[in-house]
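In this section we walk through a basic example: taking a raw amino acid sequence and producing a predicted 3D structure, encoded as discrete structure tokens. The instruction is simple. Fold the sequence below.
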Amino acid sequence: MIHVSQVSKWYGAHAALRGVSFEAPAGEVVGLLGPNGAGKTTTLRIITGFLAPSAGSVRVCGHDTVDQSLAARRCLGYLPEAAPLYPEMSVRGYLHFRGRLMSLRRGPRRAAVGRALARCDVADVAHRRIGQLSKGYRQRVGIAAALLHDPAVIVLDEPSSGLDPAQIRQMRGLMRELAQTHCVLVSSHVLPEVEQTCDRVVIITRGRVRAEGSPAGLIERVRHAAPYVVEARGEAPERVLRAVPGAARVAAEPAAPDGWQRLRLFAAPGAGDLREAIARTAAAAGLAVRELARPAPGLEQLFLSLLETDDDPGTGPAPAADAGGAA
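The resulting token sequence is shown next.
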């Protein structure tokens, strides 16, 4: 439903996006993941028609977002990070106002507002002014507005912002429910949330796609790089662990006042399981060890490894022909 092909966006000599390509089909929650400034919001603004790309193209439900902008936007429900709400309006009044902007007739609009209120769990505050609501409730009102016209594609920028843990669980369930019949694209920098919610993840750093796949598949890529965690006490634990056959490097935290020190040992490629070698080496050196583990890696490890290896500054000459202009 969303097809992004070689999209670039230049602002003078700065490339906000360079050659970004990915797809988001119906029936999946696709997560756009990256650090602040990576290009996530720029990507969403191009997909939703707020910005034109400098190069490349985006199609939403088969419609080009530049040449067929209105048709593409009719298929979209978009919640930006800062929801565009009118604080003086009541929740119900605001949703009816949004429905009129979408050209919904009175009967269908009334039904659509009722569904959105129930779906986003804001029916109990429908009569209240938006300005009197907590940030979490305001976020849910913004989502209700995005769902009002039952779009085929739903784009959510940081949808969990301002929600408490119970509301985050509800949001997760709502996204899974929507994915049964819609294409859902969600942008976030909250790694655990993406890992638990998304079927597929697209990781962007410095305006480029660095990794794409299912959370489990991406995690498998860094499983071999997960460090061993050792908590030891004795003489020079860091030096002792460096001598473990197969060790590539050791990172040590400062020792506690009682002498215990926490260290992370990174194995060389192809080294295999080093737990027995670590235990033998520590015992031979007289180290006391009260923890030896290799925690299962998560998206955080892949994310950090991509950031560590990304030394491209993202600058250079802008393309000669800039379709979107320097916005």
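Looking at the output, two observations stand out. Residues 321-327 have pLDDT under 50 and may be disordered. The first strand starts at residue 2 and ends at 11. In the next section we compare this with other chains.
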